[in-house]
Amino acid sequence: MNFSLTNFTSSRSLCLAALLSLGLAGCMSSGGSQSPSGTAGGSSLFSNWFAAQKTEPAPQVTAAAPEPEVPCPKVEISEGGSTLRQGKGSDVSFQFSLRDVARECSAGKNGAIVMKIGVEGIAVIGKAGKPGGVSAPLVVTATKNDKVVATKTFTLKTTIPADENQTQFRFIDQGFTLPAGSDDADVTIGFKG
Questions:
Q1: Is 14 exposed, middle or buried (0-12, 13-18, 19+ CB in 10 A)?
Q2: Which of 38, 84, 96, 136 has the CA that lies 20 to 30 A from 18?
Q3: Residue 44 class from Cβ within 10 Å (0-12 exposed, 13-18 middle, 19+ buried)?
Q4: How many degrees, rounded to 5, is the angle at CA 106 between CA 104 and CA 110?
Q5: Domain coverage including residue 165
């Protein structure tokens, strides 16, 4: 920006005029009485200037309606589903073991519950195995009153590095859907084998 002496002089004159107006406004007010609105009584130029200003009302901020709480059935590792071995005896290539399960739920269409299910565990090389890519089938099942209401099969894939004999894995499925009314379903996850 380029400031000139003329602009400085004009600004200085404007400030001086504003100060004189304030002084005159004080002299023109009557007796120092207060009006109900808290401004000095009389015909104060300064108070009239503020009264003439239009102020925009502050925008109304409305709080978003809280999302209804979605029931989230507990997920457990199925009986016998925590471990899977590929091969038998001394011919075991790999062994997968589940260590932990987590879940998160959201509302689906028509009262359905959409579950995000995650598992973590470890894959170990057996005597007959070697480093590289390994996979295993993982099944999640929801039952209610001993009746299967939803099931889904995944392929868990992981890679054991060349200089290692095991690796940790994490797997997350974003959309296991339970039908409406399944908030008390029993949900299990485990290896299919």
A1: exposed
A2: 38
A3: buried
A4: 145
A5: 75-191
3-state secondary structure at position 131: coil
Q: What is the token pair recorded at 38?
A: 């808290």
Examine residue 58 and state whether it is found in any structural domain, yes or no.
no
Give the SS3 label for residue 110: helix
Which residue has tokens 């001394």? 90
- The CATH number given to whatever domain includes residue 179 is 2.60.40
In a domain, 39, yes or no: no
Q: Tell me whether residue 107 is exposed, middle or buried, using C-beta atoms within 10 angstroms of its C-beta: 0 to 12, 13 to 18, 19 or more.
A: middle
Residue from 115, 121, 118 nearest 136 by CA: 121
What pairs with residue 104 in β-bridges? 116
Quick check: 81 and 98 in contact, CB under 8 A? yes
Q: What is the pTM of this model?
A: 0.62
**pLDDT tens digits, 99-149:** 999 999 999 999 999 999 999 999 999 999 999 999 999 999 999 999 999
Q: What is the pLDDT of residues 66-92, one digit of tens each?
A: 666 889 999 999 999 999 999 888 899
Provide the pLDDT for residue 112. Answer: 95
CA angle (193, 184, 113) in 5-degree steps? 80
Predicted confidence band of residue 64 (pLDDT cuts 50, 70, 90) = low
State how many domains the chain has. Answer: 1
d(C-alpha 107, C-alpha 115), whole Å? 9
